[in-house]
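(Structure overview)
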Amino acid sequence: MIKDKSLEQYADEVSKLTFNMQKMCTAKEELFCETINLSPIQFRCLRYLFKTTFLQVKELAEDMELTPSRITNLLNNLESKGYIQRKISSKDRRIIKVTLTKKGREYTTDVGEKYIKYHREILSMLKDEDEIKGLFVNLKKFKQILGEFLENRKEKLK
């Protein structure tokens, strides 16, 4: 069991680390996006759409936490580049579905491979495979406990 004093010290350090990591991850993503001629939000949207056949605009906006005007602007930009297309539902004309075009799917595949290569370069700065595995295991564990923490907080707010 961890003593309260050392838990407090770890909590302080984790709060500083996560704050700084968020800033650094944002900077990393911005640097990467400069190389592929997309904004970070465009890149995230393409990656999001890549995981699915289609999404309703409303769902995409909610999942990406964007306002209706921001999602419209984002989709207009991606559509003008030929990466996505919007289709009005034949069952309910109020529903607009978004999907990657063939060009968008190919581009996102290519960009995804470059993004993996980008992270491979970062990981190569570690000494050996054990360090990489340790980092991976701990990041995965932190993501898990953070997810559980957030779910518990959401439940308490209901």
The mean pLDDT is 93. The longest helix spans residues 4-36. Residues 4-125 form a domain with the Arc Repressor Mutant, subunit A fold (CATH 1.10.10.10). The chain has one domain: 4-125.
